[in-house]
UniProtKB/TrEMBL annotation:
This is ABC transporter permease. Keywords: Cell membrane, Membrane, Transmembrane, Transmembrane helix, Transport. It is a multi-pass membrane protein. It is found in: Cell membrane. The chain crosses the membrane at residues 12-35, 79-99, 111-130, 136-154, 192-219, 239-263. Pfam families: BPD_transp_1 (PF00528). It comes from Microbacterium galbinum.
């Protein structure tokens, strides 16, 4: 039987939509590792600018490449970047939040100032600055988005950790002999997980946008790597002549980012009992005298 939180997630329209779209993107990326309808980098000049038809279901581009195959191959890049950025953001966010909530006062205040400084720099600007020095690559996008949103996660999670730390059950855990690290893993992090999950889903959504945007600008994926941003940059020059070809990569990016954001919100509702109780009280009709 599915876990309770998963059943609650599936019961909400936004949660079901986000889960289905994210699962389809992940499945597409997995399939694209082994098979695509055509070689994504194979050009056939005689097949250039074909409309949606069999066997090119989404048509072809200006060099005769199959657009569906390019989108499927680009899903691999998107999943790789979003998961990589999520892992980096998780490590950075939890480390900064724990240091900013559970350590000595001077260190907490130093971390708080550091977080406030780092959060002032937009993620895309950081990625472009790093790319100008180290060159454009997917790893630049992963580290830039991961560090940038890790700081956001730390800023939101830190006060929640401080609040939970003052709870009676945490004080009882300390009295029973639990070390700060054990208390963090067993009690603190599970209690701030709903807030953390939402921030993490946003970081993954921003990673998708950042990869597409930076690749579009020439700071992300190299020209030999499949990317939705590169495909969009190649096709947008012909939007006045072949507008349908631009719709497919743009629609894919939009749906992926929307699904990740909606999935994060739905996950918070499914895993945060206090939020569900507040919502239930809001919708409960009052007693008429």
């Amino acid at each position: 039987m599915a876990p309770l939180w998963l059943r609650r997630l599936w019961a909400t329209p936004t949660g079901a939509f986000g889960l289905i779209v994210v699962a389809l993107i992940g499945l597409t990326a997995l399939v694209a590792l082994f098979w695509t309808p055509f070689d994504p980098q194979s050009s056939t000049i005689s097949d250039r600018w074909l409309g949606p038809s069999w066997p090119h279901l989404l048509g072809t581009d200006d060099t005769g490449r199959d657009i569906l195959s390019l989108i499927m191959a680009g899903a691999r890049t998107t999943v790789f970047v979003s998961i990589g950025a999520g892992v980096v953001a998780t490590v950075v966010g939890i480390a900064l939040a724990a240091l900013g909530a559970l350590t000595a006062r001077w260190l907490r205040e130093t971390i708080a100032v550091l977080v406030d400084i780092l959060i002032a720099f937009p993620v895309l600007l950081i990625a472009m600055m790093i790319s100008s020095v180290w060159g454009g690559s997917l790893w630049v996008v992963i580290w830039a988005v991961g560090i940038g949103f890790g700081v956001n996660i730390a800023r939101v999670t830190r006060p929640e950790l401080r609040r939970v730390q003052q709870s009676d059950f945490i004080l009882a855990a300390k009295a029973s002999g639990l070390t700060p690290a054990q208390s963090l893993l067993r009690h603190l992090l599970p209690n701030v997980a709903p807030v953390f999950i939402v921030q993490l889903s946003w970081s993954m959504a921003v990673a998708v946008l950042a990869e597409a945007g930076l690749s579009y600008l020439g700071f992300g994926a190299s020209v030999v790597e499949p990317s939705w941003g590169l495909l969009l940059a190649d096709l947008q020059r012909y939007i006045g002549v072949h507008p349908l070809s631009v719709i497919w990569p743009g629609l894919t990016i939009t749906l992926t980012v929307l699904a990740l954001n909606l999935l994060g919100d739905a996950l918070r509702e499914a895993t945060d009992p206090t939020l569900r109780h507040r919502r239930a009280e809001t919708h409960t009709p009052g007693v008429v005298a």
